[in-house]
Design a protein that fits this description.
The chain contains 3 helices and no strands. It is mainly alpha-helical.
Length: about 80
C-alpha cells in the first residue's frame, strides 16, 4: 500500500512538472511574439502615420486575409526593414 502512495505522488509530481514546463515554453514564445509584433506595429505606425491600434488592425487584417499567423506577418515586416 505504501508503494502505491509513493507512486501516486511521483506521477502527480511528474504531471505537474510537465505542465509547468509546457507553460513556461508557451510564455517564452508569447513574449518573443509580442516583441516582434510591437516592432512591426512601430514600423507600420511610422510608415502609415497611424495609431498603435490602427497598426495592429492592419496586422490582424493581413493575417486573416492571408490565413497566416499574425506573428509570422509581423516577423516578415521586421525582416523586410532589416535588409
Amino acid at each position: 500500500m505504501v508503494s502505491a502512495g509513493y507512486a501516486a505522488v511521483t506521477v502527480n509530481n511528474v504531471a505537474s512538472y510537465s505542465c509547468a514546463t509546457t507553460e513556461a515554453a508557451q510564455l517564452r514564445v508569447a513574449m518573443e511574439s509580442r516583441a516582434v509584433i510591437d516592432q512591426a506595429k512601430g514600423i507600420l505606425m511610422v510608415r502609415d502615420r497611424c495609431s498603435p491600434e490602427e497598426a495592429f488592425e492592419v496586422l490582424r487584417r493581413i493575417s486573416q486575409n492571408r490565413n497566416v499567423k499574425l506573428r509570422d506577418i509581423a516577423q516578415s515586416i521586421v525582416e523586410a526593414v532589416q535588409k
